[in-house]
Design a protein that fits this description.
The structure is a homodimer. By secondary structure, chain A is an alpha/beta fold. In chain A, strand 19, helix 10 (about 345-355) and strand 20 form a beta-alpha-beta unit. At the A-B interface, helix 10, helix 12, helix 13, strand 27 and strand 28 of A face helix 10, helix 12, helix 13, strand 27 and strand 28 of B.
Chain lengths: ~575, ~575
């Protein structure tokens, strides 16, 4: 159904499901479900660009398919509040009317995100609770509690005229959830017993054998760390890992340490989660980062942003001894309570080396069990498939390798069932049709990625651009020669440009751009200057700002640094 | 000692040790040891360049320090035959006279490497065996058996007039070595009891708790895989992991499968190792890759190169169904019996996704225990330190984070010993002086990295260049726009150049270069064209060859591919 018409076969309407993102990558999760004149979207996630895409801040799914049926689009349903599920909402919500459903925490996380974009959509946000059912046209969306790394997450059971489809969202089976909100096994089992038309299930961790384990599994390792650390304890994790924050707050109270949230993400998430009652902080325990110096190091734990080695994050600043309020000493311990997202290994390695030079001890999940994944491993994914026993099984969330493995595992599990399970390895843009008897790939619609050049200097400064646009915007390659020994720049930075309308000669803006780079390097510390990841990032940000303000252009900036 | 003079304090000579590589990175391992008019080198390793250094094939240590004392340089001592310990030998051996000592396998691996460079140094290679002692001036080098991922590895005990220093080389404690060649605990203990002046010990796996485990630990998982695989079994590992090859050969014999070595590295290593008796292959078991098609898939195991996702390797070819003799089917199983070297994650991920599209099952160390490291974990490193109880301890092999952690672990272990252990976190180029009472950092000499632009088309075509030279060679940035849906190039590739003396206009070589890229893309399969890693690599190689042949220039080539 690539046009505005509803789908019929022999006069019988069909259910149409179109994954628009998340099948081919981690992130960008978005799926459209349509029945006659009703279309709903499940999630609208973003992802961070690969390092090649310098000049791009964010990627969102191409939702042209939905824009073409905007008149029928009735609602956005959110499974939970992580970036890869809600990050594109600010970019898609203006295209559609209608409510946005999600749990209270999901909506609160979304609201902070919308506020960053200067969007007030409070009147469209509708909070829902486990087992709530919302009727939207002839579709009824039922919210099922699942456990994940953040509280208040849902799977969805969508009751349609041809049967029930279940979308798991992100989940693992946490048998001891910190907030006592258990996985709703019973409802999954009940729906499975009654008959489910299709299951769309998270494939993220299908390559991990066994069970993932509970969020509370990290407590033991952290107890050891709290007990043995003489100086400051600095813990970095994803700011949205609210359970992790709660565990660390609890241990801080137990071990008589004050808690400081450091870095914007940490401060915001902790405030939102506390306001809504998802994060409970005993009175007097939390301090501001500016107060850290007023307490003995052994009485403080800092929860900081920057677990992925992001060059501008609090932890990167701390690592190069350039943070206003946090300085590391050899008595301190820095814990990476996080995984390395593929692609970030080298940035993280740089930060760890800087921290080691400060003399602090470093602990990560390879050393102690200080992190646990939020996604179910093979046994949990099999358990869910066994409970639901769907007519059709569609692995979602992941590259082809994960989805095809999930399909293989599903095939082994279901091959001896009385009723056959059809397994569909779908791609983004595949149009899946379902009738009462099953489902199939019927068509293909455009799907892909839209690159976003984010706001560097305020609100509402977003530009959506596709890659063709990017090419038209021109290219700037600043080439710098840095002396490895001294960290000094040799000669004047050279700026190679292409597709930029820019004067040459003595008054050329390129001279100013070159001077800007020199200034940037002169004001940087030696440690920063020899951290090429950080320098490239800084040069990119500053040059893009320069070209935007001076020329009204938005070139791709691709710094090349040569050591000499 | 930065000049040609021997070192004296109050007329007493001092021992001088200078690490020239491997302290600041993984790879480039090289260390100089001098006593009066005798200098020896321990290892001369290379490393592969970071992805930023496009246009560079190999990095070797800057050995200016050794060239300055070439007249005193008496010998190169090799601990084992891995690239990070012998890869620079072809580049350094012409600078010095004198023998190169190593185990028979190490020397055989070196000889193949030298042959690639058209170097015949057979008359300089001297095979040594465990507990052999070689006198070189007033230094006596003793070879101690250690276990690692390849057979016939040594640690070194160097007897000097001021005491014994021990260099571990790479090691783990494999209690059940496949070849029965056990770790020489007794000699380490004996030397420790007699008194050791300094220990230089491998820090690679200091961030892993516990023991690493034996090479034979993978047998169980592979037995399961051999037993359950209906189609071809394709196993990729480092070609130099001779124990791994032997285990797979043994299992092939047990499970009635023929063994095909696929890819140059596998073919060469297996031949060398077999010739010297390190790899035992029952008669009739091995087949050529061209014979694979003559056997039922269930009767074949292929041992292939490409575990790091190298774009031109056998496995990458197989993954995109472009290998002459090996085609994957859904009954086949591909095993990555290797770790992901940091920086290679994305290349490997691409290859895995391609393999998944062939329908084959994929198994890696995250799924089953099909790989074990060759480097000792924390407990093994502590065990060695306890056995040796040196006067000074110098962690080697690794970035600052590993060496500083090794130092910290060493400090905790030795703080209660009767005699204090001095721990020195040295850097490449630090000049360490030792007398009978201990050691200290006395000076700093130039040390760093030399980039090598390798031969693309034959022997003896190597150019050593430093980064300054690289900048002088100019820069070419080919910018391509590829249509994501069709894989077709849009428009003509644009070539941005800097620092290249090249004509513009209709006859410009840049037009030919642009045409070359178009041809390259046209002859590539759709799957190749959408694999940007592979395309960038191909374009780099071809353009470098073009500029070298046509203009005699060697620019840095930095392809930018935009999806539109």
């Amino acid at each position: 159904m690539s046009d505005q018409q509803a789908v019929f076969i022999d006069r019988q309407p069909l259910l149409e499901v179109v994954p628009l993102g998340g099948l081919g990558e981690f992130g960008l999760n978005m799926m459209a479900v349509s029945w006659e004149d009703t279309t709903i979207s499940i999630d609208a996630g973003s992802m961070f660009p690969e390092p090649e895409l310098l000049g791009v801040d964010l990627i969102i799914p191409d939702f042209t398919y939905l824009q073409q049926r905007a008149a029928k689009h009735r609602a956005i349903i959110l499974t939970h509040g992580h970036e890869d599920h809600v990050g594109a909402v600010p970019h898609v919500l203006r295209s559609f009317d209608g409510p946005i459903y999600g749990s209270p925490l999901t909506l609160a996380m979304l609201e902070s995100k919308l506020a960053e974009h200067g969007i007030d959509a409070a009147d469209r946000l509708v909070a829902v609770h486990p087992r709530d059912k919302i009727a939207i046209g002839q579709l009824t969306v039922e919210f099922l509690r699942v456990t994940h790394s953040t509280p208040d997450c849902f799977a969805l059971a969508i009751h349609t005229p041809v049967g029930v489809i279940i979308h798991t969202g992100d989940f693992k089976v946490d048998q001891t959830p910190l907030d006592g909100e258990h996985f709703d096994f019973h409802r999954f089992a009940e729906l499975g017993a009654q008959g489910v038309l299709a299951l769309f299930s998270d494939s993220t961790n299908i390559e991990r054998p066994g069970f993932t384990g509970s969020e509370t599994d990290v407590v033991e390792a952290f107890e050891e760390i709290f007990a043995s650390t003489r100086g400051k304890l600095v813990v970095t994790s994803f700011a949205t890992s609210v359970y992790r924050l709660q565990i660390l707050v609890n241990l801080a109270a137990q071990f008589n340490r004050k808690v400081a949230f450091v870095g914007r993400g940490m401060v915001e998430t902790s405030q939102v989660a506390q306001r809504l009652g998802y994060l409970k902080i005993p009175a007097g325990l939390a301090i501001r980062d500016s107060e850290i110096k007023n307490h003995p190091p052994g009485s403080v734990v800092c929860l900081v942003t920057g677990s992925q080695g992001e060059p501008m994050s609090a932890l990167s600043r701390i690592a190069i001894d350039d943070h206003r309020h946090v300085a590391l000493t050899p008595d301190d311990v820095v814990v990476f309570s996080s995984r390395e997202i593929p692609g970030n290994e080298r940035s993280i390695d740089r930060v760890v080396n800087h921290i080691a030079r400060r003399g602090a001890e470093i602990i990560h999940e390879g050393i102690k069990h200080v992190h646990v994944s939020g996604h179910g491993s093979e046994e949990e994914l099999k358990l869910l498939l066994s409970l639901v026993r769907p007519r059709c099984f569609v692995p979602v969330h992941g590259a082809f390798r994960q989805r095809s493995r999930h399909a293989r595992v599903g095939e082994r599990l279901t091959r001896n069932l009385a009723s056959k399970v059809d397994i569909i390895i779908a791609e983004n843009g595949d149009v899946l049709h379902f009738d009462r008897s099953g489902g199939w790939v019927a068509d293909k619609v455009p799907a892909g990625r839209v690159l976003i050049d984010g706001p560097e200097s305020g609100l509402g400064d977003q530009v959506l651009r596709d890659r063709r646009h990017l090419a038209e915007d021109g290219l700037v390659v600043p080439v710098l020669a840095i002396n490895k020994q001294t960290g000094a720049v040799e000669g004047v930075p050279d700026l190679i440009t292409r597709g930029l309308a820019v004067e040459q000669g003595a008054d050329s803006p390129l001279r100013d751009a070159s001077r800007l780079i020199l200034e940037l390097l002169e004001t940087a510390s030696v440690e920063e200057r020899t951290d090429y990841g950080m320098m490239k990032d800084k040069i990119s940000v500053e040059l893009r700002r320069f070209f935007r303000k001076r020329l009204g252009q938005r070139p791709l900036v691709l710094p090349v640094i040569m050591e000499i």
